[in-house]
Amino acid sequence: MTTPTADASTPVRAGRGALQTIDNTVAFLREHAPYDEIDEALLREVLQHAQLAYYAQGRSIIGPDDGIPGFFCVVQQGLVRGVRPDAVAEAPALFESGAGETFLAAALFEERPTRTAHIAAEDSFVLQIPRTQFRELLDQSARFLHYCERRASVLVERAREQMRSQVAAELQRAATLDTRLNSLPLRPPVTCPPETTVQSAVTTMHEEKVGSIVVLDEDRRPRGIFTLHDLRRIIASGDADLRQPIQACMTPDPTAVGGSHSVFDAVSTMMEHHIGHLLLLEDRPEHGHGLIGVVSQRELFLQQRVDMVNLSRTLSRCTSAEAIAEVRRQIGRVISTMLAHGASGKQLTGLITQLNDVATRRVLELAEDTFDDELPPYTWLAFGSQARGEQTLHTDQDNGLLFEADSPGEAAAMRQRLLPFARHANTLLDVAGFPTCPGNVMAGNPELCLSRQEWVHRYQGIIDTQSPEALLKASIFLDLRVIAGDEQSLQHVTDQVLPKAEHNTHFQHAMAQIALGFKPALGMIRSFATQRSDAGRTLDLKRNGLQSYVAAARTLALAEGVACANTDDRLEALAAEGKLDARDTHAWIEAFSFMQVLRMRAHQEQLEADLPLSNKIAPDALNPLDRRILKEALRQAQRLHDRLKLNYP
């Protein structure tokens, strides 16, 4: 191994004033993670073998050709950049390490050469700690070990940056989905008082070249909004009186969000309410509820090139299941744009799920229209990924039906009335692009078309089950959400069921065994666990990656009485209650998000190649950065499993 030389280097502990040198270095390190949580005596012992090296600007520190590093480094002063070994001078850095930041730890931890060339971007002093002391820190400090293991969140962000760098030039300037609404270049809102006539308001809108006018009361609080859509509505009614006050035909209580909300929040809210204009209000209570501006669909799309709201509106107006299927084929194009904007896994799957919810509700309306007799009130339930808000383009049906009945006899009669409708809805959903479930987890199955009390008994049976094999089949029902109907009916069920799950330790142990069965696809010697297929060696990103997180989070959440279904929300709720370490949770969420994005990208590539959608990917076909991050994400899944084993040995 070639040992790189610095322009000058000295031991940290050397000669006269050595104690002061050690004291200063310890004080410096304890201002930065992870050294702020490492035993001071251990730090002092390690530093006796360290050197402080000086590198002039532009000097190479170490690169891939130098073999496994003999040391890891902490920047004490200056800036170190990591670049590709073959990068030209103006190439962007893969990372930068400033004062207090560590580099080369990953290479030593994995016992491999560094994959990047490390260059002093300016005159820099670097603390170099030998490999032997690195092992000593790993062996004696759990905090340092966790620091070296927990690199997924940083790496995931680098991968998202890499995706963004691949966007076409016209997209690179656009705002990202995380951009705050109050940072967008919005014009001041056009407003009027409630007594303004429709004609006067429309004249103002025409002069100001806007599509909406906000109606304010005497305290300058928004009371309503009038848009060109409202104008078309009153004109089409045939008895429009343009001299009537605007308050008579405005849309009252317009939907609003705070200025600190993101573009993603605005897109999601517009989809949920099927609206084209969104009021932007001040966030802080001391400022009241002052109007900042109006975010229009058109302005938002000019910023984002995202047309999810249009798709949502179109889906809600489709007149057939075939038309819904045709509209849903456009989702892939929009997902490509969102990937280019660096959308997270939760954002992507959340918006796809919202669109699928809209499509499902429209299918239910179409199914209802085919029945002459009025149907009894019902609640349509989603299970699995749709319930969690984690759907991708590759999905099938997992649904059920809930209704109210006062007796077993009434429940049986209601079921006979609702089953033909449920089966017809399942058929229409299949036509609309949601394949039927191979396991018959569908509302048309009599076992899943149940009264509220029957659902309670069904869930009690699941919780009382001692067999992991039986629970594996039933676990899909443990993620559930209302798509259409009465939310309160399901709330009555969960209010009775969740406490039973929380206090049944046999159930929790069985669920933990199920979760641990979804083993992360890691090999024995720092490689992937793959299987041979026609596409080469592949791994199942869903079963041996994503499900590792989903099932573990489900188990931990049910054991603590956490009611939400989304995997990220479950982990965050557990961290908020002090059941999980917040830093671990952040790493797990970022790793889970990366794998969702990777899965989505694979689906996009399969669609472009006119191939059937699959969750299997070939790690060797990934670029080096994605391959590295996938390995880190799978390691994080293993760490979550290790956490589960502590709870359920």
Written description of the protein model:
The protein has about 650 residues and is α+β, with helices and mostly antiparallel strands. The chain is about 50% helix and about 15% strand. The strands form six sheets. It has a five-stranded antiparallel sheet with strand order 1-2-9-4-7. Strands 3-8-5-6 form a four-stranded antiparallel sheet, with no helix packed on it. Strand 18, helix 17 and strand 19 (about 450) form a beta-alpha-beta unit. The longest helix has 27 residues, at about 580-610. It is globular, with a radius of gyration of 29 Å. It starts with 7 loop residues before the first strand and ends with a helix. Residues about 15-20, about 160-175 and about 300-305 have low confidence and may be disordered.
Essential attributes:
4 domains; four-stranded antiparallel beta sheet; 25 helices; CBS-domain; 649 residues; alpha+beta; 48% helix; Jelly Rolls; 23 strands; single chain; five-stranded antiparallel beta sheet
